[in-house]
C-alpha cells in the first residue's frame, strides 16, 4: 500500500503529518502483515512523474491525502494511474473530501472509495473490508466510508469516533517517519484535535465536532524526542487553538521551560496559534521565559536587507512565534464568518500583555472577507498599527481564499463573491468590495507588509509622528510615489493588476529595495500632506 502526500512548497516542512499518522495506526494493527510506504511530492511535480513513481511501486492500494493546494493534481494523478491500470484500488481522504465535495468532482467516480472525516479507524476498516472481499468473505461495508453504486452514493455515518487520541501511535516515537525526513530539522506536533470555532471560511472543523486531546505524557515524550534527540530547529504546533485549554497549554510551556532552564537544552523555533481571548497574564509570563534574551527589540538594531527578515532576523531569540488570527477588525465581518467579535478592552489588555512581557506576535488578517469594505479594511489598519510601535510583532495578511467544501463556498452567490475556480481559489471581488478596490487594497497591503515587516518599521512610525498623517495616507503616498517613478516601472506592484500574499511575502522585498524606500522617506515631505 502507498500513502501519497503532495505538499505545497510554501509549507514549513517538506512532508505532511497525516499520511504518517495513518501509517503508524495501520502498522500498529497489522504489524508486519501490511507493507506501507509514504511517498512525498511537491505540487510542482508533474502528474506524469507522480504516476510513474506510483506504478513503479506496484502497490495494490493507493491512498491520497487531499488538501486545497493539491486536489487538482491528485485528480490528474488518479486519472493517469487509471489509464495505465485498473488493478489498483484508489482511496481519497483528507480535509477536501466530504459528501458534498464528492458530488461536485468533475468525475465523482474517479476513486474507488472516499473516507469522510478522521481516517485512522475508517481506513483500517476499509483495508480489512477490501482484503476480506478479495478472499471471498462476506463482510459489511465500513461506516464512515463512501463509494458509488448504481443507486448513488453508498454511505453510513460513523458515530464511533476516536475519543482517546493516545489510541493513535506517535509518528515520532513509533519511528513511522523515516530519518531522512529530519534533514531539514523541522517537524509538526499535534496536541489536540478539533476547534471550538466554526469559521465559515475554514474546513478543519467540518468533521470534528468536539475537542479531544493527547495525554500530556505523550506530548512531553514527543517534545523530548524531537528537541533532544532529533534536534529539530523549528517545531510547529498544528492545534487550531493551542490555548483551548489554558491550563494544559501552561503545562506544556512549563515542560519546555524545564528543558531550557534545568536541562540546558537549546529550544527550536516554536510556532503555535491561539486567540486573543483564550490566554491570561500567567501564560504570557511563562512564554516570555522561553526567550534567550530579555527586552528584545531586534527591529531597532537590524540593518534592512533586500530580502524577507520578519522571522529569522526580527524574531531572533524570542523562541516562540505566537500566531493570533484576528482576520478582521470589523465585527460585522467577523459575525458573517462565524468568528467572535473584537472586544476593545480585551484586545487592548492582550496587546499590552504582549508588549509588557516582550512576547512576539504574528497577527493574521484576511483581505476580502464578506461585508469587508475598503473603508473598514483601512479603518482596521489604523486601529491595530499603533500596537506595533516599538515591537517586533509580525503582520501576516492573506488574500481571502474560498476553500471547496467550506460554508463560505455555499454563500458565494448570495454574498456576490467572485473567485478563482482553480486553486488557490483567491477572491476577486465581493458585494462590498469591487475588484478594483480589492486589487488596490492588495497593493497597499504589499507596501505596508514590505515596510512593517522589516527594520524600516522605525522610519515608518517616525514619518507618522512627524507628519501627523494617518497610517493609510502614508502608505498611499509611498505607493503613489512608486507608481510614478520610472525605476519601478517593471515591478509587479506597478505593472500587474493583481498581486496577493505570494508576492508580498517574497518578491516585493527584492523588487522594492531598501535604499529606494529610504530615499522616498527622506525626500518626501510628509508634513505637506
Characterise the protein shown here.
With 529 residues, the chain is an alpha/beta fold. The protein has a domain at 2-154: Cobalamin-binding domain (Rossmann fold, 3-Layer(aba) Sandwich), CATH 3.40.50. 39% of the residues lie in helices and 15% in strands. A 7-stranded mixed sheet has the order 2-1-3-4-5-6-7, with helices on both faces. It has a 6-stranded parallel sheet with strand order 8-11-12-13-14-15, with helices on one face. It has a two-stranded antiparallel ribbon with strand order 9-10. The termini are far apart. The model has no long low-confidence stretch (mean pLDDT 92).
Properties at a glance:
single chain, 529 residues, alpha/beta, Rossmann fold, seven-stranded mixed beta sheet, six-stranded parallel beta sheet, 19 helices, 17 strands, globular
Can you describe this structure in just a few lines?
The chain has 529 residues and is α/β, with parallel strands linked by helices. The protein has a domain at 2-154: 3-Layer(aba) Sandwich (Rossmann fold), CATH 3.40.50.280.
Global mean pLDDT:
92
- Low confidence ranges: none
The total of helices stands at 19
Q: Structural class of the helices, strands and pairings? A: alpha/beta
**Main β sheet profile:** 7 strands, mixed
Oligomer: single chain
CATH superfamily of the domain at 2-154: Cobalamin-binding domain
Q: How many DSSP E strands?
A: 17
List the helices and strands and how they pair.
Blueprint (H helix, E strand, L loop, with lengths): L1 E6 L9 H14 L6 E6 L4 H11 L3 E5 L5 H14 L4 E5 L5 H6 L8 E3 L4 H15 L10 E5 L2 E3 L31 E4 L2 E2 L18 E2 L2 H14 L4 E4 L8 H16 L7 E6 L6 H8 L31 E8 L3 H6 L7 H13 L4 E7 L6 H11 L9 E6 L7 H4 L1 H4 L2 E2 L7 E3 L5 H18 L4 H11 L3 H14 L7 H4 L5 H11 L2 H10 L6
Parallel strand pairs: 1-2, 1-3, 3-4, 4-5, 8-11, 11-12, 12-13, 13-14, 14-15
Antiparallel strand pairs: 5-6, 6-7, 9-10, 16-17
Helix pairs in contact: 1-5, 2-3, 6-7, 7-8, 14-16, 14-18
